[in-house]
Amino acid sequence: MHGRAIASAEGIKLKVNYPEWAQYIKTLFSLAPLKPIHLVLDLSAGTGSLSSILTSWGYELFCFDFSLGMLNIAKRKFEKQNLPGTFVRGDFRKIPFKETSFDAVISTFDSLNNVLDPNELLDIFVQVKKILKSGGPFIFDLNTEWSLKIEWNDFTRVEETANTITIWKSRYLNSISYLFFTLFVKIDEEKAIYKKNINSVQGTWL
Ligand SMILES: C[S@@+](CC[C@H](N)C(=O)[O-])C[C@H]1O[C@@H](n2cnc3c(N)ncnc32)[C@H](O)[C@@H]1O
After folding, report:
1. Would you identify the CATH topology of the domain 2-140?
2. pLDDT of 47-71, one tens digit each?
3. Topology at the third CATH level for domain 145-205
4. I need a surface site. Which of 2, 110, 113, 166 has the fewest CB within 10 A?
Protein backbone atom coordinates (compact mmCIF):
# COMPACT_ATOMS: atom_id res chain seq x y z
CA MET A 1 0.00 0.00 0.00
CA HIS A 2 2.81 2.41 0.95
CA GLY A 3 4.80 1.47 -2.17
CA ARG A 4 1.79 1.99 -4.37
CA ALA A 5 1.13 5.36 -2.82
CA ILE A 6 4.73 6.43 -3.52
CA ALA A 7 4.55 5.17 -7.09
CA SER A 8 1.34 7.13 -7.49
CA ALA A 9 3.09 10.24 -6.20
CA GLU A 10 4.92 10.27 -9.53
CA GLY A 11 1.60 10.36 -11.32
CA ILE A 12 0.16 13.01 -9.03
CA LYS A 13 3.08 15.31 -9.71
CA LEU A 14 3.16 14.85 -13.48
CA LYS A 15 1.65 18.28 -14.02
CA VAL A 16 4.49 20.13 -12.28
CA ASN A 17 6.60 21.89 -14.86
CA TYR A 18 10.00 20.69 -13.65
CA PRO A 19 12.01 21.97 -16.64
CA GLU A 20 10.66 25.46 -15.89
CA TRP A 21 11.53 25.09 -12.19
CA ALA A 22 15.01 23.86 -13.13
CA GLN A 23 15.51 26.86 -15.43
CA TYR A 24 14.43 29.21 -12.64
CA ILE A 25 16.90 27.59 -10.25
CA LYS A 26 19.66 27.83 -12.84
CA THR A 27 18.93 31.55 -13.15
CA LEU A 28 19.10 31.95 -9.36
CA PHE A 29 22.42 30.06 -9.35
CA SER A 30 23.77 32.58 -11.83
CA LEU A 31 22.94 35.43 -9.40
CA ALA A 32 24.87 33.87 -6.50
CA PRO A 33 28.22 35.41 -5.51
CA LEU A 34 29.91 31.98 -5.70
CA LYS A 35 30.99 31.03 -9.20
CA PRO A 36 30.86 28.51 -10.71
CA ILE A 37 28.07 26.49 -9.11
CA HIS A 38 28.68 22.81 -9.75
CA LEU A 39 28.13 20.58 -6.72
CA VAL A 40 24.52 20.83 -5.54
CA LEU A 41 22.74 19.22 -2.59
CA ASP A 42 19.01 18.63 -3.10
CA LEU A 43 17.95 18.51 0.54
CA SER A 44 14.55 16.95 -0.18
CA ALA A 45 15.04 15.40 -3.59
CA GLY A 46 11.84 13.32 -3.60
CA THR A 47 11.67 11.27 -6.78
CA GLY A 48 14.52 13.24 -8.35
CA SER A 49 12.50 15.02 -11.04
CA LEU A 50 14.24 18.35 -10.55
CA SER A 51 17.67 16.91 -9.67
CA SER A 52 17.76 14.73 -12.78
CA ILE A 53 17.14 17.74 -15.04
CA LEU A 54 19.87 19.76 -13.31
CA THR A 55 22.23 16.77 -13.65
CA SER A 56 21.48 16.49 -17.35
CA TRP A 57 22.55 20.15 -17.64
CA GLY A 58 25.98 19.38 -16.13
CA TYR A 59 25.50 19.99 -12.38
CA GLU A 60 26.61 17.29 -9.94
CA LEU A 61 23.76 16.37 -7.61
CA PHE A 62 23.57 14.84 -4.15
CA CYS A 63 19.98 13.65 -3.73
CA PHE A 64 19.04 13.63 -0.04
CA ASP A 65 15.63 12.61 1.29
CA PHE A 66 13.98 11.06 4.33
CA SER A 67 12.00 8.58 2.23
CA LEU A 68 13.82 5.55 0.91
CA GLY A 69 10.90 4.84 -1.44
CA MET A 70 11.25 8.30 -3.03
CA LEU A 71 15.02 7.93 -3.29
CA ASN A 72 14.71 4.53 -4.97
CA ILE A 73 12.45 6.04 -7.63
CA ALA A 74 14.96 8.91 -8.03
CA LYS A 75 17.82 6.42 -8.42
CA ARG A 76 15.93 4.50 -11.12
CA LYS A 77 15.13 7.77 -12.90
CA PHE A 78 18.84 8.67 -13.00
CA GLU A 79 19.87 5.15 -14.09
CA LYS A 80 17.31 5.16 -16.89
CA GLN A 81 18.87 8.32 -18.31
CA ASN A 82 22.47 7.19 -17.60
CA LEU A 83 22.99 10.13 -15.28
CA PRO A 84 25.52 10.15 -12.44
CA GLY A 85 24.17 10.96 -8.97
CA THR A 86 24.66 10.31 -5.28
CA PHE A 87 21.71 9.26 -3.14
CA VAL A 88 21.69 9.66 0.63
CA ARG A 89 18.84 8.91 3.00
CA GLY A 90 18.54 11.17 6.02
CA ASP A 91 16.64 13.82 7.94
CA PHE A 92 17.29 17.45 7.02
CA ARG A 93 17.04 18.26 10.72
CA LYS A 94 20.41 16.49 11.11
CA ILE A 95 22.36 17.20 7.94
CA PRO A 96 25.24 14.71 7.79
CA PHE A 97 27.69 16.57 5.52
CA LYS A 98 30.98 18.29 6.32
CA GLU A 99 31.40 22.08 6.39
CA THR A 100 31.74 23.86 3.02
CA SER A 101 30.90 20.69 1.09
CA PHE A 102 28.51 22.21 -1.49
CA ASP A 103 28.32 25.10 -3.94
CA ALA A 104 24.52 25.28 -3.60
CA VAL A 105 21.68 23.71 -1.62
CA ILE A 106 18.10 23.47 -2.89
CA SER A 107 14.83 22.35 -1.27
CA THR A 108 11.75 22.71 -3.42
CA PHE A 109 8.02 22.07 -3.46
CA ASP A 110 7.29 23.23 0.09
CA SER A 111 9.47 20.51 1.60
CA LEU A 112 10.52 22.72 4.49
CA ASN A 113 6.84 23.14 5.40
CA ASN A 114 7.26 19.75 7.07
CA VAL A 115 9.12 21.61 9.82
CA LEU A 116 6.54 23.19 12.09
CA ASP A 117 8.80 24.41 14.90
CA PRO A 118 10.44 27.79 14.08
CA ASN A 119 13.51 26.90 16.17
CA GLU A 120 13.99 23.69 14.22
CA LEU A 121 13.69 25.64 10.97
CA LEU A 122 16.28 28.15 12.17
CA ASP A 123 18.59 25.29 13.09
CA ILE A 124 18.25 23.86 9.55
CA PHE A 125 19.25 27.24 8.08
CA VAL A 126 22.30 27.32 10.39
CA GLN A 127 23.28 23.78 9.31
CA VAL A 128 22.80 24.63 5.61
CA LYS A 129 25.00 27.73 5.97
CA LYS A 130 27.77 25.52 7.42
CA ILE A 131 27.76 23.00 4.58
CA LEU A 132 27.70 25.73 1.91
CA LYS A 133 30.84 27.28 0.49
CA SER A 134 31.06 31.03 1.04
CA GLY A 135 28.67 32.82 -1.36
CA GLY A 136 26.80 29.63 -2.26
CA PRO A 137 22.99 29.99 -2.40
CA PHE A 138 20.31 28.13 -0.47
CA ILE A 139 17.20 28.06 -2.69
CA PHE A 140 13.96 26.93 -1.09
CA ASP A 141 10.23 27.59 -1.29
CA LEU A 142 7.61 27.62 1.43
CA ASN A 143 3.86 27.93 1.68
CA THR A 144 3.19 30.94 3.90
CA GLU A 145 0.14 31.74 6.01
CA TRP A 146 -0.82 34.34 3.39
CA SER A 147 -0.92 31.76 0.60
CA LEU A 148 -2.83 29.26 2.75
CA LYS A 149 -5.42 31.96 3.54
CA ILE A 150 -5.68 33.60 0.13
CA GLU A 151 -4.42 31.24 -2.55
CA TRP A 152 -5.36 27.85 -1.14
CA ASN A 153 -8.59 28.56 0.74
CA ASP A 154 -11.59 27.00 -1.00
CA PHE A 155 -9.32 25.42 -3.56
CA THR A 156 -10.21 22.17 -5.36
CA ARG A 157 -8.17 20.41 -7.98
CA VAL A 158 -8.90 17.12 -9.76
CA GLU A 159 -6.10 15.45 -11.68
CA GLU A 160 -6.22 12.32 -13.79
CA THR A 161 -3.35 10.18 -15.03
CA ALA A 162 -3.48 6.80 -16.81
CA ASN A 163 -3.97 4.93 -13.52
CA THR A 164 -5.01 7.47 -10.92
CA ILE A 165 -7.51 10.15 -10.11
CA THR A 166 -6.62 12.54 -7.32
CA ILE A 167 -8.80 15.11 -5.64
CA TRP A 168 -7.18 17.88 -3.59
CA LYS A 169 -9.30 20.25 -1.57
CA SER A 170 -7.97 22.83 0.81
CA ARG A 171 -9.76 25.04 3.30
CA TYR A 172 -8.65 27.65 5.78
CA LEU A 173 -10.87 27.68 8.87
CA ASN A 174 -10.21 29.35 12.23
CA SER A 175 -6.47 29.62 11.65
CA ILE A 176 -6.19 25.99 10.63
CA SER A 177 -5.34 25.06 7.08
CA TYR A 178 -6.82 21.69 6.04
CA LEU A 179 -5.84 19.57 3.08
CA PHE A 180 -8.36 16.88 2.08
CA PHE A 181 -6.67 14.46 -0.25
CA THR A 182 -8.28 11.47 -1.98
CA LEU A 183 -6.51 9.10 -4.33
CA PHE A 184 -8.31 6.59 -6.55
CA VAL A 185 -6.25 3.89 -8.28
CA LYS A 186 -7.56 2.10 -11.38
CA ILE A 187 -8.04 -1.61 -10.70
CA ASP A 188 -9.91 -2.64 -13.87
CA GLU A 189 -8.70 -1.19 -17.14
CA GLU A 190 -11.66 -2.30 -19.31
CA LYS A 191 -14.46 -1.28 -16.97
CA ALA A 192 -12.52 1.73 -15.70
CA ILE A 193 -13.13 0.73 -12.10
CA TYR A 194 -11.19 2.68 -9.47
CA LYS A 195 -10.47 1.81 -5.84
CA LYS A 196 -10.22 4.51 -3.22
CA ASN A 197 -6.62 4.10 -2.07
CA ILE A 198 -5.92 7.01 0.23
CA ASN A 199 -8.31 9.36 1.94
CA SER A 200 -6.58 11.76 4.26
CA VAL A 201 -7.12 15.02 6.06
CA GLN A 202 -4.20 17.03 7.28
CA GLY A 203 -4.44 20.18 9.36
CA THR A 204 -1.75 22.79 9.89
CA TRP A 205 -2.16 25.15 12.82
CA LEU A 206 -0.74 28.60 12.21
C1 LIG B 1 6.61 17.66 -1.71
S2 LIG B 1 7.99 16.55 -1.82
C3 LIG B 1 9.08 17.50 -2.84
C4 LIG B 1 10.11 16.66 -3.54
C5 LIG B 1 11.03 17.39 -4.52
N6 LIG B 1 11.77 18.47 -3.88
C7 LIG B 1 10.26 17.93 -5.70
O8 LIG B 1 10.23 19.15 -5.91
O9 LIG B 1 9.71 17.13 -6.46
C10 LIG B 1 8.67 16.74 -0.18
C11 LIG B 1 9.86 15.84 0.08
O12 LIG B 1 10.44 16.18 1.34
C13 LIG B 1 10.88 15.00 1.95
N14 LIG B 1 11.03 15.22 3.39
C15 LIG B 1 10.07 15.50 4.28
N16 LIG B 1 10.58 15.64 5.53
C17 LIG B 1 11.91 15.42 5.40
C18 LIG B 1 13.00 15.43 6.31
N19 LIG B 1 12.79 15.65 7.62
N20 LIG B 1 14.24 15.19 5.85
C21 LIG B 1 14.45 14.96 4.53
N22 LIG B 1 13.46 14.94 3.60
C23 LIG B 1 12.22 15.17 4.03
C24 LIG B 1 9.79 13.99 1.61
O25 LIG B 1 10.23 12.65 1.78
C26 LIG B 1 9.49 14.36 0.17
O27 LIG B 1 10.28 13.62 -0.73
Report:
1. Rossmann fold (3.40.50)
2. 999 999 999 999 999 999 999 999 9
3. N-terminal domain of TfIIb (2.20.25)
4. 2
